[in-house]
Structures are given as C-alpha cells and as structure tokens.
Amino acid sequence: MRVLVIEDELRLAENVASALREGPGFAVDCAEDGDVGLALAKNRCYDLIILDLMLPKLDGLGILKRIRAAKDQTPVLVLTARSEVGSTIDLLNAGADDYLSKPFDLGELLARAKALIRRGKGTAHPTLHAGDVEVNTLEQSVTRGGQSITLSPMEYRILEYLIHRPRVVVSKQELLEHLYDFNWEHHSNVIEVHVSNLRRKMSGGDEAQMVGIDPVIETLRGRGYRLFLNRAGDE
Q1: Alpha-carbon span 144 to 203, nearest angstrom
Q2: pLDDT band at 234, cuts 50/70/90?
Q3: Which of 152, 145, 115 is nearest to 216 (CA)?
Q4: 15: closest CA among 105, 114, 117?
Q5: DSSP string computed for 71-134
Q6: Which residue, among 118, 7, 6, has the nearest Cα to 67 in the 3D structure?
Q7: Is 95 left (phi over 0), alpha (psi -120 to 50) or beta?
Q8: What backbone phi and psi angles, to 5 degrees, belong to 227?
Q9: What burial letters (b/e) apply to 135-168, b meaning 16+ CB within 10 Å?
Q10: Cis peptide preceding 215, ω within 30 of 0
C-alpha cells in the first residue's frame, strides 16, 4: 500500500514515514507544504493520506475540501494540535475519515492507518480471505489450504493488494504506483519477477509443498494480473 504524508514538521514526518515503512511495509511519499501535498494527492495513487491541519501555503482543511470536491474518496487521517470541538466537527464534515490529536502514539497511528485502508477497500476485518487463501494483515502471515507460506516483503504486499481486489484485473502500472514511492527507480520487469515467485510459492513450490493446487495469480497478457479463484474455492 502507498501512503501520502503531508506534514511540515520534518522530524515528525520522518518518524511517521519510518514507522509506516518499517511496520506494515507501506510505500510512503512526504510533502512539506499544502501546495505540494495537494499536487501529489491529485495523482490518486494513494491508499491513505495522512494530513496535518496546520500547513504553510494551503492548510489541511483546504486540501481536504479540494480532495473531496474532486470526488476523491481516498481515506484521510488528519493530524491536529487543536482540541476544540468546532475544529473536529469541521474536519469530519469536510470529509475526514479519522483524526489524531498531537502528540500521539505511533502505534496508535499505525493501527488507525491500517484500519482506514482496510475500510477504504471494503473490509473492516484484519484477516482477508479469497478461496482457500487467508491473509492476516496484522501478522502479515499467509496460508493456503491451511498450509503456512513464507513470502518476501514485496511478494506479501502484492498478494495483499490483489486480495483486496478479487476478480479485478490489476495492471503492472497500478501495482508500481501503489507499492513503490517516488524515490524508487522503476525497473520494467520487477513486478513480473515478484509475481512469478509469488505464483510459484502459492501454487505448491518449494515453500508451500502443495502438489496439484491451482495457481492463485492469473496473468492476462498485455493487461495485468488477477486473483484467480477456482470454482470449488470461490466465495
């Protein structure tokens, strides 16, 4: 998943970004003022926006109103030093999904961020299912047919993204946009390599040791990838 952090306090922004990268393994972009933050948000490639209320050039409430006016439904978690009831009401009425008052615990921020991303993709429970595949997003563990499967961090991120969108064809470009930040130098074949390894492991390769199981990831040449569910396991 990919998160945009719009925060002008550099140390705080760095701490939040590091927690998101090291904990759930999200890709993170940061913006130091409202104008840059709004420009990045317009790309609509984010699964969550973490938005400071008090920003130079354009404040958080102004960004939030413009995002929602553009029909962008990306979940937004607002960070605010204000405790007035009126400010909270304004934020929620403008379309904020949740808010945290500064100072806050990074563990709480991570929990709220993951919950907002899950709800934004249509599920509130941390354990996701597709056919006989189970993904625990809290533990970042994967099983298929009751067998535990060990994935690399990027293989897990690809599977988690696809399991949020069962039956939907997801292009290579979409995966690149949601799994990597702007600081990463894109290589055209990196997604193919990770998907190939993921398919092998999920289909009974060295890790799973499940002979005769159908592949989980379907490749549609020239279009992208789709989570494949066989008829027996399809929910």
Answers
A1: 9
A2: very low
A3: 145
A4: 105
A5: T----EEEEES---HHHHHHHHHHT-SEEEESS--HHHHHHHHHHHHHHHTT--SSEEEETTEE
A6: 6
A7: left
A8: -70, 120
A9: bebeeeebebeeeebebeebbbbbbbbbbbebee
A10: no
**pLDDT number for residue 167:** 80
What is the three-class DSSP state of 191?
helix
Q: Above 50 in pLDDT, residue 200?
A: yes
Q: Tell me the two tokens of residue 132.
A: 């006989």
Q: What is the DSSP string of 20-61?
A: HHHTT--EEEEESSHHHHHHHHTT---SEEEEESS-SSS-HH
Task: Count CB neighbours of 83 within 10 A.
Answer: 9
Residues 55-105: tens digit of each pLDDT: 999 999 999 999 999 999 999 999 988 665 567 788 888 899 999 988 899
Distance CA 195, CA 207 (A): 15
If phi > 0 it is left, if psi is from -120 to 50 it is alpha, else beta; for residue 48 that is beta
DSSP 6: E
Whether the CB-CB separation of 52 and 62 falls below 8 Å is answered with no
Nearest 5 degrees, angle CA 38-CA 62-CA 182? 15
CB of 20 within 8 A of CB of 7?
no
